[in-house]
Amino acid sequence: MQLGRKGWNNVVIFSMLLMIFFFNGLHTKLNSGSEQSSVQSVLPAQNFILALEFPDQKIERIGTSWRATALINNAPASFWQATTANLVALVNEWQSMQLSVADDQRAFHNTPALTVATVWLAGEQLPWLYLLYSAPQGYYLLDKSNQRVLSLDKATAQRLFPSFNFSQSEPK
């Protein structure tokens, strides 16, 4: 079979397109396994927290430092104090936290959340909502933005929600 110059150009173009589709499909196939990993980051990578809001207080970035503002007047005293070091540690904890995806992706619409955290990220128009639920062996963190259910133990939950009184949520 003899092909002219235009014919060979078409063969090269179509073969390059096939290679591009092949490599693109291979790339997405290889990356799809890592997205369903059992351990995932709570917040998206390379994002900066601008504000963290809990039911009793709001933590905001002011320049290079952090400020905590009470949202409830005459709130009961908490063992966690909003010092500069504690605020930086809390924000770093949220930014670097990785949790395992819960095996039991159960619905939480019938049970009330223990507490909620609202996280404002740089470059995002809407905040990310995280609801904490009690589980038989620890706690569940429901990521409303991505509809993920993450499992965590009591110590990790206390680090992410330091002003929440966990003794009230334990069964008696």
Automatic annotation (TrEMBL):
Keywords: Membrane, Transmembrane, Transmembrane helix. The lineage of its organism: Bacteria, Pseudomonadati, Pseudomonadota, Gammaproteobacteria, Alteromonadales. The chain crosses the membrane at residues 7-26. It comes from Pseudoalteromonas arctica. This is Orphan protein. It comes from the Bacteria.
